[in-house]
Amino acid sequence: MPLVYGVFLWCTTRHRHQTDYNYNYNYNYNYNYNYNYNYNYNYNYNYNYNYNDFPMNIDAISHLQTQVLWASFAVSIAFGWVSQRSHFCTMGAFSDIVNMGDWTRMRMWALAVGVAILGFYGLAFFELINPSDSIHANGRVIWLSALVGGAMFGFGMVLASGCGSKTLLRIGAGSLKSLVVFVFMGLFAFMTLRGITAVARTYSVDLVNFQMDTALLPHWLASQLGAQANTVGLLSALVVGGGLVLWALKGEGFIRSGSLFGGLGVGACIVAIWWVSGHLGFVPEHPETLEATYLVTNSASMESLTFTAPLAYVINWLIYFSDVSNVLSLGVVSVFGVVSGGAMYAWHSKTFRWDGFSSTQDTALHMAGGALMGVGGVTAMGCTIGQGLSGLSTLSLTSLFAVAGITCGALGGFKFQMWLLMRD
User: Fold this and answer.
1) 282, β-bridge pairs
2) Above pLDDT 90, what percent of the chain?
3) How many Cβ atoms are within 10 Å of 195's Cβ, its own excluded?
4) Does residue 283 lie in a domain region?
5) Contact of 330 with 277, CB cutoff 8 Å
6) In terms of CB atoms within 10 Å, which of 43, 154, 180, 332 comes out highest?
7) Residues 269, 261: Cα–Cα separation, whole Å
8) What pLDDT score does 40 carry?
9) Dihedral sign computed on CA atoms, order 69, 109, 402, 198
10) CA distances (Å), 67 to each of 70, 71, 78, 306, in order?
11) Which residues span the domain enclosing 88?
12) Does the pTM exceed 0.90?
């Protein structure tokens, strides 16, 4: 027993000596936190909103359409007043040259064309309009249609005693003859737009054409030279338009004759309508079609004054007045504006008087003249104003063909008139 106790004691003592731990902990914590926060916020917000980049709603479109229509009507009244006061007439200019050798009214016409050219390409240079969106810029040059249609129009305006614009001016001054010409011209224009003569036109002269990048000669030249179109356009306008203006002003007694007022006024009206149609009436994105468009023009392109197809549109508007889809257009209000301007001047100058036909032959000639102008004006895509002023202001090749055709047709009409006089 003592032996067992001794062994147990030895074992426990040994174990205690082995488990004698020496804990020596040396903790040295050195925390050095250096926080340096430097916040420099510079917020510079520069918002430059161009509200033309945002789509317009229907109410805004409707309001803008009203503005364009009233502006077109006002300019058309001014056109009618100036034309009536200055006796501006393309057929009259040809007649004065053929019968009297007097170039005064032709110089007035040239001045109007020159001013219109300078104004059109001036607007384009300052990016107020886009010439490529003009109705005269189509690269499909229907040269035969322009020549044949122009010749028909020129011959017809001699028989009818005046072109489309002169017809409207005379209606305002009390001419019942011109009212008959208006009806026949508008009816045959409508037929050539959508009726039986439209089919004949489409499957005959319209098939003869050639293709260009654009019919606008300055823009075509710019594409060939690799130059900027608006710059070439302005330079071309200075040369051609400026040359016409200088030629007109150099005429003996031109300024004293009052033709200066007529040329400047008519040319300015053409430019004003280009601005109204091409700038005021331009919508980058229509809310219904989501496409760029030109408001209240029948072609949905940029337009200026013309007086052949609009006569047909007036007849259509009067007949289908109750149709809600039949709305006013720039062409329709321009017709009413020119009649109003002519009437206002006639009353102001006390020259208003009722005028009728003198004979059956006189009636027949005016009816035939109206029909020829209706067919020819649509075929040539314009009249002495539509192609002779608005078209030439763009320096369109198609317009040059049309004016050449009108000139030839007018000279033929004068020869026909002389033959009638000699026969009688």
Assistant:
1) 294
2) 81
3) 14
4) yes
5) yes
6) 154
7) 12
8) 47
9) positive
10) 5, 6, 17, 20
11) 57-423
12) no
- pLDDT tens string 362-389: 999 999 999 999 999 999 999 999 999 9
Residue 30 amino acid letter: N
Q: How many whole angstroms separate alpha carbon 416 and alpha carbon 361?
A: 14
- Amino acid 286: pLDDT: 87
Give Cβ neighbours of residue 402 (< 8 Å, ≥ 6 apart): 146, 147, 149, 150, 380, 381, 382, 387, 388, 391
* Contact call for residues 170 and 357 (beta carbons, < 8 A): no
DSSP bridge partners of 396: 216
Number of domains in the chain: 1
- Is there a contact between 346 and 169 (Cβ–Cβ < 8 Å)? no
Residue 55 has a pLDDT of 61
Q: Which H or E run includes 211? A: strand 210-211
Residue 201 lies in a domain: yes
Instruction: Tell me which residue of 294, 342, 334, 341 sits closest to 317, measured CA to CA.
Output: 334
Spatial distance between the Cα atoms of 61 and 295, rounded to a whole number of angstroms: 8
3-state helix, strand, coil in the chain (%, to 5): 65, 5, 30
Read off the tokens for 67. 């503005």
Average pLDDT over residues 227-251: 96
> 241-292, pLDDT tens digit by residue?
999 999 999 988 888 778 999 999 999 999 999 999 999 999 999 888 888 9
CB 304 within 8 A of CB 390: yes
- pLDDT, residue 165, reads 97
* Chain segment 167-200, per-residue pLDDT in tens: 999 999 999 999 999 999 999 999 999 999 999 9
What's the CA gap between 195 and 188, in Å, rounded? 9
145 domain residue, yes or no: yes
What is d(CA 338, CA 79) in angstroms, rounded to the nearest whole number?
6
How crowded is the C-beta side of 114, counted as CA atoms within 13 Å? 22
